[in-house]
Write a structure and sequence with these properties.
The protein has 11 helices and 49 strands. It is α+β, with helices and mostly antiparallel strands. Helix 7 packs parallel to helix 8.
């Protein structure tokens, strides 16, 4: 369809909508019973109300939330039946049973065509909408984009790869291009290989040459516009790995958004990025919450109209990469998603002890190979579920994810001791002793709760903030080492696993000597993690080498007492660049040190990790603090359980603490939907006693208050697990009326009704409002 015709149609729709709104406004004055309807398609989908029980045919895809618009006839540019040897100026250079690869040397661009359906994915923007400047034009029309820094300038320049000298060698399954940018003194090599499930693009680190003193590479994009779409011309969405997963629809945003999604894989870099306070206020009472960290180096694009999509997996370079997604309106009228590889990061260098600073860039580039593997999905698999299934298959085949026992356990974490200021010294505030835990277990066992998983925090001498832990020595106020060991063994005989919490990253400068073997930023300043609490106002990070030594020492102590269960935090989800004795170590070095330390522990201990990054998944027997939602960015349209689909039936997942969920009923339904085990943070004593400690934010945790919640969550969610144990999710659909249907490979279906007003019938089952039902095969 011609863009001019589309524009005229869009104007007609807008005029009609304005007339309708005018009528609605008059009607609203006549009757207060008529409700106003939001103008955004997202709001309409999410606010559909039902007043009576409704029968839904699950095969009716028009009601799936991500199917947000009517189908339009596909053009021969989207579905190419008989392309021959050329397609949009690209030459056919490789093909296999599933895909064809077309290539244009000038831009190093490619087009991938699905041989079964004829659907195509383009890697550049061929047309000019007349709205983009020369810099953006070169960006959108290049398969590889370099952002080059000149001298001390921190503002990068986009290099037009089309003007570079290229030496291209075609291979049976792709091509090898040697690229030379003589003006900038830069050379690199790009190799693209067609695979059975997609293609791989790689730029080896040792192929990058920078011979100019003036020009240096800041960032590299590899096929950033793969699958791009214009405004709302196509149906589908972009997938971002935010929280458990989220979608950005390919609809016309009409200029609503001026910003994009841009987050570092594995979170911010504490060695370079400036720390910030999260207590900033919006208006009078609203606060800013910390965004979810990206746990998996993936992103995706799905064209639901042509039933073709891809999942991009960063196989190398993930420690220095960002995932970026641009909905139309954010800089251009195109929708595009990609990974950006940061070779030199911009940071603030202090110039004085107290004040003064200058913004500069890394002198030495981050050394890593750039490699992205694009896995395509088609037909019924061309949706976010298909992307998750493809990722799960990839991880299992590569050994990056190992199938573990899929037991249901309710997670009950206990806080032992924290400290408060008292006269000259700091004194213990004891919340949960060994005997307290023993009595709570007995009480729950009498009620039929036997499948329990526990992380004991603050068990060590000095309490929860006495870090690092170098030996197995429990505080006397909880009962001492001997009593704790006895409890762990007794509980094991009863089928209860107790894991001891071990923060392997932090050191408390108030309680420990924290002047040596601590992390210094690239600026050579000691990094401080501020708590903004009265007792312990800040913590420091150990260097990776000291972390490894501490873990080895503490592990030897644990083994003497036959302690075999540990819960690791800190190193599981924090990575940084650091400076030590004049040498700068990148996040690649940090990740390597952490993985080696965890791998060594894994031989003798059962490990559960707190929100671990992908490179540690294969060593974990469970994942703590699994997010059930996303960061709720303004441009995201739908939350999806991407990670839950990947993990369910493979690795046990334990939720974030239910104590702090505002809507416990909705959160309960999400756990049933996603197969995540429930988690509570419990104290035997009233948490009011913690008001002058660093745990003052633990405002609701008393066992007597949460006992009924524990019993209810345990009973109902265990029934779901008994039907799905060992099974993996094969399909997941969210419907506009509030129904979600999850299908397992054993034929079981879980129906969740998020509607607050109406029962919904599906497959012969009636699901009441805000409830779920497990259907038989």
């Amino acid at each position: 369809m011609n863009r001019k015709i589309r524009k005229n149609k869009k104007q007609a729709v807008v005029l009609a909508a304005c007339a309708l709104l005018a009528v609605c406004s008059v009607s609203a004055l006549l009757s207060k019973q008529i409700k106003a309807v939001s103008g955004s398609s997202d709001s309409v989908l999410h606010s559909t109300s039902y007043t009576a029980s409704e029968t839904l045919k699950l095969s009716d895809n028009s009601k799936v939330k991500s199917d947000y618009s009517e189908s339009e006839q596909l053009t021969d540019e989207v579905i190419v039946s008989n392309p021959g040897n050329t397609l949009k100026g690209h030459q056919l250079i490789a093909e296999n049973k599933k895909y064809q690869m077309y290539f244009k040397e000038e831009a190093l661009s490619i087009i991938i065509r699905d041989k079964n359906t004829g659907a195509v994915m383009e890697s550049i923007v061929e047309e000019d909408d007349g709205k983009s400047n020369a810099s953006w034009q070169s960006f959108m029309k290049s398969g590889v984009v370099l952002q080059v820094l000149k001298g001390i300038n921190i503002v990068p320049t986009t290099v037009d790869i089309r003007k570079a000298e290229k030496e291209v060698t075609l291979k049976e399954d792709g091509f090898l291009a040697k690229v030379s940018l003589k003006e900038y003194g830069i050379k690199f090599q790009l190799e693209v290989t067609l695979t059975e499930d997609g293609y791989t693009a790689e730029i080896p680190s040792d192929s990058i040459e920078e011979t100019s003193e003036e020009y240096k590479i800041g960032e590299i994009y590899v096929y950033p516009f793969l699958g791009n779409t214009y405004l709302g011309e196509r149906k589908g969405y972009m997938f971002i790995p935010d929280g458990n997963g989220a979608l950005i629809y390919l609809e016309d945003n009409e200029g609503r958004f001026s910003s994009n999604f841009s987050q570092y894989v594995y979170g911010m870099n504490a060695g370079l990025d400036e720390a910030y306070t999260l207590s900033l206020l919006w208006g009078e009472y609203q606060s800013v919450n910390e965004a979810e960290k990206i746990m998996a180096p993936v992103f995706g694009m799905v064209h639901t109209d042509s039933e073709m999509g891809y999942l991009g997996i960063i196989e190398s370079g993930d420690y220095s990469a960002k995932i970026e997604a641009y909905p139309n309106g954010a800089y251009t009228d195109y929708n595009w998603i990609c990974s950006k590889f940061v070779l030199r990061q911009i940071y603030t260098q202090p110039t004085g002890n107290k004040e003064g600073s200058v913004v500069t860039r890394q002198a030495k580039r981050n050394e890593f190979d750039i490699r992205i593997h694009y896995r395509f999905v088609s037909g019924e698999k061309a949706d976010y579920t298909g992307l998750a299934l493809s990722y799960r298959e990839y991880l299992l085949n590569a050994g990056e994810l190992v199938k573990k026992e899929d037991d249901f356990k309710i997670r009950l974490d206990f806080l032992g001791i924290d400290k408060e200021n008292w006269l000259i010294f700091k004194r213990n505030v004891t919340m949960t002793t060994v005997d307290n835990i023993r009595s709570m277990y007995q009480d729950l066992r009498a009620e039929g709760v036997t499948d329990i998983f526990t992380v004991y925090k603050g068990w060590q001498k000095g309490g929860i903030n006495a870090v690092p832990i170098t030996s197995y020595k429990a505080d006397g106020d909880i009962g001492g080492t001997k009593e704790l060991t006895k409890l762990i063994k007794e509980s094991k005989e009863q089928g209860i696993d107790i894991y001891l919490a071990q923060d392997a990253l932090r050191i408390n400068p108030t309680l420990r000597n924290a002047n040596f073997n601590i992390m210094k930023q690239i600026t050579k300043r000691v990094y401080q993690e501020n708590t903004y609490k009265d007792v312990f106002s800040s913590f420091r990070y150990l260097t990776p080498s000291r972390t490894a030594e501490t873990l080895k020492t503490s592990a030897a102590s644990y083994k003497k007492s036959e302690i075999k269960n540990l819960m690791l935090s800190g190193i599981s989800n924090i990575l940084f660049t650091y400076s030590n004795k004049g040498t700068v170590y990148s996040r690649v070095n940090t990740a390597g040190s952490y993985e080696a330390a965890v791998k060594e522990l894994d031989t003798d201990f059962s490990l559960v990790l707190e929100k671990p990054f992908e490179f540690l998944w294969k060593y974990s027997d469970g994942i703590n603090e699994m997010p059930a939602a996303s960061s709720n960015y303004i441009f995201t349209d739908e939350e999806v359980p991407f990670l839950s689909i990947v993990f369910k039936g493979v690795l046990p997942m334990y939720s974030e603490y239910i104590n702090f969920e505002a809507n416990k009923q909705e959160f309960f339904l999400k756990l049933a939907e996603m197969g995540i085990n429930p988690s509570f943070y419990i104290t035997y004593e009233d948490p009011a006693g913690l008001q002058y400690t660093n745990s003052s934010d633990l405002y609701s945790s008393k066992y007597s208050v949460y006992k009924e919640y524990i019993l209810s969550y345990y009973k109902e969610l265990k029934e779901v697990h008994e039907k799905t144990e060992g099974a993996m999710i094969t399909d997941h659909k969210q419907y506009a009326n509030g129904l979600t249907v999850v299908t397992y490979d054993n034929g079981i279906r879980v129906y969740v009704n998020y509607s607050t007003t109406a029962a919904i019938q599906a497959d012969g089952y009636e699901i009441d409002p805000m409830s779920f039902k497990v259907g038989e095969p």
